[in-house]
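Render Peptidase in 3D.
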Amino acid sequence: MFFHPMDFLILIAFGISLWAQMKVSSNFQKWSEVPASSRLSGAEVARMILDRNGLYHVPVEVVPGSLTDHYDPISRTVRLSEPVYYGRSIAAISVAAHEVGHAVQHQQSYGALVLRHRMFPVVNFTSGAAPFLLLAGFIFHQFSLLGLGIIFFSFAVAFQLITLPVEFNASARAKKFMVAEGIIFPGEERGVNKVLGAAALTYVAAALISVLELLKYILIFTQSNEED
């Protein structure tokens, strides 16, 4: 069975995901045109917040591309895309502060982040093997392979669900930092919320898709066992 009623819900979730990605781009573009009152660049904001939290050893580097910003927990480096690193807009400083939020999480051993880091090697393997196990289970009607594929896929779903509090917490830290340090003023909080809120929605949509796919496979597995 390659079509299931759950596919309709998954398509809706995909639609939400595409909409969320467009919102990220449009909000970033819109608030990239609004200068921050502090006149600080994304790189300067990142460096300021890192230093305020005693993270003098964490470098801030520029990377090519757009929306390629991330925190590398292995090298403990904040990497910002060129529009964020050099930008002095609400969008630029919001994204920079968010990535620094992950560095502070790392420093403070934030529970969800620690768990995600520990899960990564396992998820890296299981997420690669799961599609082949699921496909083999469907083609050869081997319920043991299908069941194993579902178990492997569930690790990837758990990883995405754990990512949600990590991202939401990083955004909350970013807003708190910027207000406390006077980087943004009350009238600018709306723009920060728009930029970071749209980004968070993409993670929610991705998690929703994964959960629905997992439920679909579980239902197929259960129904197939009952038919036999």
